[in-house]
Amino acid sequence: MKEGNIIVPLPEHQGDVCKSMDVFYNPVMKHHRDVSVAVVKKVKPVRIGLPLSGSGIRAVRIMKECGYAPEVYVNDKRSNFMDVVHHLFSANDCDLPIIHNMDANVFMQSVKHFDYLDLDPFGTPAPFIQAAISSMRNGAILAITATDTAALTGTYPTVARRKYWAKNIRTNHMHELGIRILIRYCQLQGASLERALTPIMSYSKDHYYRIFFRVKYGKKAVDKLLDQHHYAQYHNHQLTISRYNYGEGQFLGPLYTGLLQDKDFLQSLDNEWAKKLLSENDVFGGVDVYAVCSSLHRNVPPFKNLLKMGGTQTHFSERVIKGNVEYVLRELTHS
Ligand SMILES: C[S@@+](CC[C@H](N)C(=O)[O-])C[C@H]1O[C@@H](n2cnc3c(N)ncnc32)[C@H](O)[C@@H]1O
To answer: Three-class SS of residue 214?
Structure first.
């Protein structure tokens, strides 16, 4: 198999990609790794940590494609990990990274001082967040992936409450809310260590959520982030911020209500997906056009008519418009 120019010396896997594979390699996650490579290329971190490395494919891609020579540390607890990495790197004629074969939390706590850390677990990143945050340098970038989107979107409310200390429900806003719940959870973990985690790129794709945080040391920066934790109110198919959990409609969260993207950062990346995120309104909530039309018993009009006054659809749901809610509601009720 190949991923771009990289040889992946694994037998083609029959059936679904799953945890029980001898070596975990998921070709569908190429897009996920493309974004990592674009970020590393731009930021040029000195010390890179990949605590849950799987096949090592992300490490070899970073080392071959980033255009400089960072210190790359790979780790995975699988017993065959050392052999797998040696095999992959020699097939690609690449110098070896620094290899560890232990529990990810022990790895992060023993190596430390990372400038870029990419946490790519099966399911929730929650068990690794504290160790990750405390192993990072001031100004570093922490990339987090979560594939337990069912919990974060409210399919299992008791799991969401236990794991992420918040509530969500299944609507067309659920992915934005799920990401914001996850961001708040990570920020609270950072707060207890006096580390401020500001999202600089956040998105939902396929079966996963991904957030890149800038990690800054300092109490004041932490307090500023905590001031942006509120509830969301879902009422009349609109999602807005609410300081308190009372009143009409459904109350969701608590969650992070601030910016999800750093536009300058997105602009600086050589990556098509970053450009797509850049084109979207980065504001909280919006209006579910399909749900409004259904409650008005009318057909959904062409979206181009609704996107005139600066509104945009976003990758979270093409049924939701952000940025010009009053205009959209006027068009839908009066046209
Ligand atoms: C989703 S895969 C990683 C995929 C990889 N990052 C890539 O780009 O292909 C998760 C990996 O985490 C490893 N893992 C799970 N729990 C771990 C732990 N506590 N410590 C170290 N590795 C762990 C698994 O063996 C698996 O290879």
So the answer is: strand
Ligand 1 atom with the smallest distance to the CA of 33 is 8
- HSE at residue 334, side-chain half, CA atoms within 13 A, is 7
pLDDT at 166 over 90: yes
Options 3.90.230.10, 3.40.50.150, 1.10.3860.10, 3.30.310.50; which CATH number does 2-284 get?
A: 3.40.50.150
From the list 93, 94, 92, 96, the residue with the least C-alpha distance to 3 is 92
- The residue behind tokens 């050589």 is 270
Mutate which of 122, 129, 207 for ligand 1? The one with the most ligand atoms within 8 Å of its CB, which is 122
Give residue limits of the domains in the chain.
2-284, 287-334
Task: Tell me the pTM.
Answer: 0.96
Per-residue pLDDT at 9 exceeds 80: yes
| 12 pLDDT more than 80 | no
Name the residue of 52, 108, 124 to mutate for ligand 1: max ligand atoms within 8 A of Cβ.
Answer: 52
